[in-house]
Every structure is written in structure tokens, then in C-alpha cells.
Amino acid sequence: MGSEQEPADKAATIDPTFRNGSLTAIGVVVGFSLSFLSTWAAQPGPWNRTDIGAVLLICIGILLQIRALAGMLSIRSLQLASYERLIRYFLTGIGLAAIGVGIAIFADVLGFTTTALHK
What we know:
Elements: H1 16-41, H2 49-72, H3 80-109
Helix pairs in contact: 1-2, 1-3, 2-3
């Protein structure tokens, strides 16, 4: 009597300012990832299987990062469940891109490739 309860179906939300910071961070990382891939693709020389595997992981990672960025632009990203899902996409994308870069670096160090780190 006297106390009103919020509807049970009302989803938890996050503060728009908090979301905006995440949006900025995601945008910066996506830009860096695309720049890295662009620089690597511009390198002369033949590609081999190691390069293709690394680039595939980097590209999938970038696609997940872009998916997270696009999702953050939606008003739905203010809902906690949506925000957390988009952050998982982003972190998975960073992880895959980092693994791809790591493969490229180790392949270059071990002499399996001539493309990844040379100009």
C-alpha cells in the first residue's frame, strides 16, 4: 500500500555517459586495427599460409569490433544486457586480432614468412 514497485519487465540500464566512453574506446581500437591491417596489406611480396591464417583472424576480430561499434551507436546499447553483449563482442574481437598479430610476429621471427613485418 503506499509503496510502488517498478515493473518487473523494466530492463536495467546504464548511464549514457558511461556508454559514450566505451563507444570512444571501441572506435579508437577499431581505427587502430584497420590501420594495422591496411599497412600490412600494402606491403609488397608474396603471401603464404601463415600470413593468410593471421589475416583471417585479424579480419574476423575487426568484424567483431565493428559489430560492437555499430551496436553501441544504437539506443538499445543503454540496456545493460545489450551493453554487456556488445562488450563481449568487442573483447572477443580484440582477442582474435591480437592472436592474429601474434601469429604474424612469431612466423616472421621464425622465418616462416617474409611479408608480415618487412617493408
